[in-house]
Amino acid sequence: MADHPRALWVLAFVAFIESSVFPIPPDVLMIPMILARPNRAWLVAAVAMIASVVGGLLGYAIGALAYEQIGQPILESLGKTDAMGEFSTRFNDFGFWAVLTAGITPFPYKVITIMSGWTGMPLATFIITSILARGLRFFLVAGLLLKFGSPIREFIEKRLGLMTILFVVLLFGGFYAVRYF
């Protein structure tokens, strides 16, 4: 499917549903598409990013709508409304970082999209951070494939997620060190 005339549409569909419900990341299609037609690497990354962010809005809506209709009454019956309110406030205090981290690491982005809607994260913060995170992820993959071609594929598929997590941990560690030492 990577070199099929409708491959971009399939990629857009996979990136869209992966951001809210589907377990398979768009990289599965994106990598072979870029290797098959390197001259379209930036287009492929852009389609994946846009579709992923729009799909993230669906996840946000699921969180926002399902919580009010289903989650809140259950929590009220259990006497947990205050605890969830506190969690919501804490999540939104770190919301930018949560969306950014989930958007660029192997952590399921759909979890954060749904939680962002559930906690009422400001929509503008969610959209801007999603564009930044998904753009970084997909354009990094496209750039690596353009520069190194097929030999970098195994690194991307097996180690890029780990390297990204390590980078985020070091980044947070650096912020923590500067703030508290």
Automatic annotation (TrEMBL):
Domain named VTT is located at 26-143
Q: Which residues cross the membrane?
A: 42-67, 94-112, 124-148, 160-178
Keywords assigned by UniProt?
Membrane, Transmembrane, Transmembrane helix
Query: Which InterPro entries does the UniProt record give?
Result: DedA_domain, VTT_dom
Pfam annotation, one family: VTT_dom
Gene Ontology CC terms, in alphabetical order: plasma membrane
Protein name in UniProt: SNARE associated Golgi protein
Source species of the chain: Roseovarius aestuarii
Organism phylogeny: Bacteria, Pseudomonadati, Pseudomonadota, Alphaproteobacteria, Rhodobacterales
